[in-house]
Amino acid sequence: MTDHRPDDPLTYPVGRRPDHAECVEVAPGVQWIRMQIPIPGLDFINLWLIEDGDGWTIVDTGLRSKKTQAWWEEIFAKYLGGKPVTRVICTHFHPDHMGLAGWLVERFPGAVLWMSFGEWSFGRMLWLDTQEEMPEEVVRFYRRLGWGEQALAAFRKRGYNFYSQVVYDVPHGVRRIVDGESFQIGGRAWRVIVGQGHSPEHACLYCAELGLLISGDQILPRITPHIGIYPSEPDGNPLQLYIDSIDIFRPLPADTLVLPAHGDPFRGLPLRLDALAHHHDVRLERLYVACDKPQTALEVVPAMFSRKLKPDDMRLASAEGVAHLHCLMGMGRVVREMASDGVYRYRRAA
Question: Which tens digit of pLDDT belongs to each residue from 217-239?
Fold first, then answer.
């Protein structure tokens, strides 16, 4: 059963969630799979199995783990009807989406990985980067944000890159998908809609005939996608990219059934797009008001959140906060200056 708030303006037409190793049909030939993930606040990821002529297409894969592989094996035995998986599509490189892509294309010889090139190449780069010690360049990035030496020392102990631990061997090659491209799955046309901000080239899939949008993490019903600044692109402006991407989805029909990566399938896309835009407007304004004097990122970021942040929250919170600060900088509303201690200070523009 679902547990939606009574004041939720969205509607959730699929009557129940899939249980362990179960599929629930959300449209002709489109099956909903729900698998556990050890990520606090998310707990589950939605994966999609689409009947595709003499085979099946899988959209997103779950984290690499023996448990997830065993769940997949149960699904294969119960639902594939003897037909193979011929195509694996990953919306983006994050481990809960790409974690078992390599295993699936090994498990079904002839299956091909389909992704946008930016997502595949970023994921393969991370998987190949097996350096264990924290690079000093990364430490400097967090020091410039205002992290103290004690916090940085603890950060060093965590190790550098865990990606290869939760992602199976990333295939050497990929079938690139691009924005606006249309291809057939199960005799129906599916169009690629690329959004940005949460990841470099996040690929959503829209089927007009079925009135479905597989939105991945780009559009979620109850939470907002994480958008952060990290050492890989320290001066980027991913939040502006995300805000610009919201409008890309507005031409879709209002009654589109959205199949998100987290949460339940829903209708009410225009309402959700408005809510996502408003959410970031509110956070941007909170940060702008807080920048009444020069402050480090760690000093000003808590003003963006309604709850008190715990120490364990600060890495993700600071990444989101700096993304909002960079967006304000891009608007010309906030300026960033390097102080004599080597730490950035942010203040309102004159």
Answer: 999 999 999 999 999 999 999 99
Asked if the model's pLDDT at residue 1 lies above 50, the reply is no
pLDDT in tens, 43-63: 899 999 999 999 999 999 999
Question: 117 burial class (0-12, 13-18, 19+ CB within 10 angstroms)?
Answer: middle
The owner of tokens 């589950």 is 44
What integer pLDDT is reported at residue 7 of this predicted model?
Answer: 75
Q: What CATH number has the domain bearing residue 69?
A: 3.60.15.10
> In total, how many domains does the chain have?
1
Q: Is 303 helix (H, G, I), strand (E, B) or coil?
A: helix
Is 102 inside any structural domain? yes
Rounded Cα distance between 10 and 271, Å, is 8
Half-sphere exposure of 231 (CA within 13 A, CB side): 15
Residue (of 155, 156, 170, 329) closest to 235 by Cα position:
329
62 within domain boundaries? yes
Which range marks the domain in which residue 177 is found? 24-284
